[in-house]
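Human: We require from you a standard protein entry with sequence in single-letter code and fold as tokens, and nothing else.

Assistant:
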Amino acid sequence: MMPENDVRSKHKSQRLVGYSLGACSKTCSRRLYACVLRTHKGCGYIITCVMLTLLSFAGSSPLFAATNEAIKSRVVLAQDISAVNGFDVDAVKARRLVTAGIESLTGKRDEATAWATLVSSNDVVGIKIDTQSAPLLATHRAVVEAIADGLRAAGVAATNIIVWDRDASKMIAAGFLTVEQPSRPRSFRSLVVSPNGWDATAVYDYRVVGRLVWGDLLFGKVDSNIDTHSHLPLVLTKTITKLINVPVLHDHDTCGIAGCLYNISVGAVDNQRRFEMFSQRNDPAIAEICTMPQLRGKLVLNAMDGLVGGYAGGPAFKPEYSWNYGGLLFSRDPVAVDAVALELLEAKRREANVSAIGFQASHITTAGRLGLGQSERAKIDLITATP
């Protein structure tokens, strides 16, 4: 496989879209990473090299959805309205929802075996949560505890389960940075990325400049504090071997939905504010960041927390636009989950006489076009799991 630096140096006259994703001409053992190079020619760009991702579905291999359009993606809905009362979540019922969802998704009849299809006892598993609208509209700790229980049942040590997000204050508000009770063993570790947890070598270079703020890697290190680079977290690139994505079911005024794709891209890098400038709607940034191999090669599960959802005014928490959905969506395909979730949000907005927002979620279509999963609803099977 050709290292990133070699690809960049060999194609001096070309512009790499987002990131070098692997070899231009060689197969990488069990999977091929996409390498998309565009050469400037006249007024436009032409694609000079494309290798679609082919990720193994066997065992615990990391994967997004298959890019073969003939293959449908599978999304499992585990729902129990009684699991939520106001903003209080019943931890026992949340655990049942997680178990039902993962068993249905994997086709296994017991929790440990189901989780063992995704991870092994040797893995270090990162759980990316969404706390941007904490405390009341964030990934619920009860859901994460249930996931951690399942991972431990599959043999993953609690010290090798890392729950992470960018902002310490938000993680505190959501209940993920707390002092554990001495009598209760820790079920996972919590980690805050900003300000010192960025990987200077894992760069997404995008044409729009952004004004850096405290917490960005290059803040105070470049002229005028403006830059075109965003960075992935070290916990993602250097520490974990598998990634579980646990976003929240809520809308986003700029890009339609802050779902699975958003959570592990714009919700995970620094210098991200620029992606919403000039009516970009975070597109194509969301999809292009998701193609980066350090992320794409480790993602094994998406579990969207829809126990409480937000259907308007997002991503900020608006109590008048929140509702108890009582559901969790599971899939190995982040694009498919977002497509299903957007459908749910649109239905809720129609019910509340709020204007449609789906047209703003163009990043879902872009992600499908880049081979990250199925964006067309007709190519997604939605299955209900009974807890």
The chain has two domains: 1-51, 61-202+229-385. Residues 283 and 362 are 7 Å apart (CA to CA). The chain has eleven helices and 17 strands. The mean pLDDT is 84.
